[in-house]
Design the sequence.
């Protein structure tokens, strides 16, 4: 007879060879990572930008030089993608708070909708910036 502990379900935190990733878990994880990224990385950069504006033209030119360099542009593009994803997934959660789309089919459909809307929003904002 097998041990009862061996028959318990495996934790979803063991993603990899033991647990097949699901759309719902991946969307949740990426949304949380986007929030952490925006808090830990973007907030300090915004604070430094405001300090540079207040410090004068030389500091502002230095900050703009950093933000318009290749690493700065990549940072801004990744940050924009994170903002779009976090925004669209937050609307998904607000929809759930109203009691809508709570069935399994609704949860998956809202996930697909959030991904498509985030990609469309990202493309729209990029198009608006570049034109």
Sequence:
């Amino acid at each position: 007879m097998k041990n009862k502990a061996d028959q318990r379900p495996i934790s979803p935190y063991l993603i990899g060879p033991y647990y097949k990733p699901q759309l719902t878990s991946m969307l949740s994880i990426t949304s949380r990572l986007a929030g952490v990224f925006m808090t830990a990385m973007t907030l300090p950069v915004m604070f430094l930008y405001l300090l540079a504006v207040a410090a004068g033209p030389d500091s502002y030119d230095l900050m703009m030089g950093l933000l318009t360099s290749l690493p700065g542009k990549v940072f801004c593009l990744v940050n924009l993608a994170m903002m779009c994803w976090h925004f669209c997934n937050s609307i998904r959660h607000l929809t759930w708070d109203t009691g809508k789309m709570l069935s399994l089919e609704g949860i998956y459909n809202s996930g697909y909708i959030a991904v498509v809307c985030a990609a469309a929003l990202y493309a729209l904002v990029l198009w608006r910036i570049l034109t």
The two ends are 69 Å apart (CA to CA). The first helix runs from residue 23 to 55.
